[in-house]
Amino acid sequence: MKHSVLTMNLLRYSVSYVFIVSGFMKLISAETGNAFVNLGLPYPELLMHVVAFLEIVCGVLILFNKSAKNAVIPLICIMIAAIILTKMPALDSGFMPFAFDARLDVIMLVLLFILYRQSR
User: Fold this and answer.
1) Residues 61/91, Cβ–Cβ less than 8 Å
2) What is the rounded CA–CA span in Å between residue 88 and residue 102?
3) How far apart are CA 23 and CA 49, in angstroms?
4) How many angstroms separate the CA atoms of 55 and 15, rounded?
5) How far apart are CA 95 and CA 12, in angstroms?
6) Can you tell me where the transmembrane regions are (predicted)?
7) Which pLDDT score is estimated for 2?
8) Residues 68-79: what's their mean pLDDT?
9) CA angle centred on 87, ends 83 and 88, rounded to 5°
């Protein structure tokens, strides 16, 4: 049982790190901000700030294991949207370029599902 708790803690720390850093990068990096704006979404700057806020807040909640199950839900939605908006266009070049581009997003999505299933 102790091994399982250690594993889940490492998973939470890893996932929270990714989303907290990603959220801050959307706010402080012009390059990341421009990439978000170039997606063609309505109100891109507002949407970018909302996504950044959600990533940071949900990442912190997961880090401290506070409402982690609820915090994972918006992040799953963000990851699905990220795959659809930024990775699906690679399907025009074939499945393998898509699979390569989406590999880390898919892993993060799987880790979020594991956190959701294991959280109280």
Assistant:
1) no
2) 8
3) 9
4) 10
5) 31
6) 46-64, 71-89, 95-116
7) 59
8) 96
9) 90
> What's the pLDDT tens digit per position in 13-56?
999 999 999 999 999 988 887 888 888 889 989 999 999 999 99
Q: How many angstroms separate the CA atoms of 49 and 55, rounded? A: 10
How high does pLDDT run on average in the chain? 92
Count: domains in the chain: 1
Mean pLDDT of 81-87: 93
Question: Count of residues for the chain?
Answer: 120
Could you tell me the residue range of the domain that residue 107 belongs to?
A: 2-118
CA dist., res. 91 & res. 72, Å (int): 27
Tokens encoding 70: 């609820």
Q: In 3-state terms, the chain is what percent helix, strand and coil (to 5)?
A: 90, 0, 10
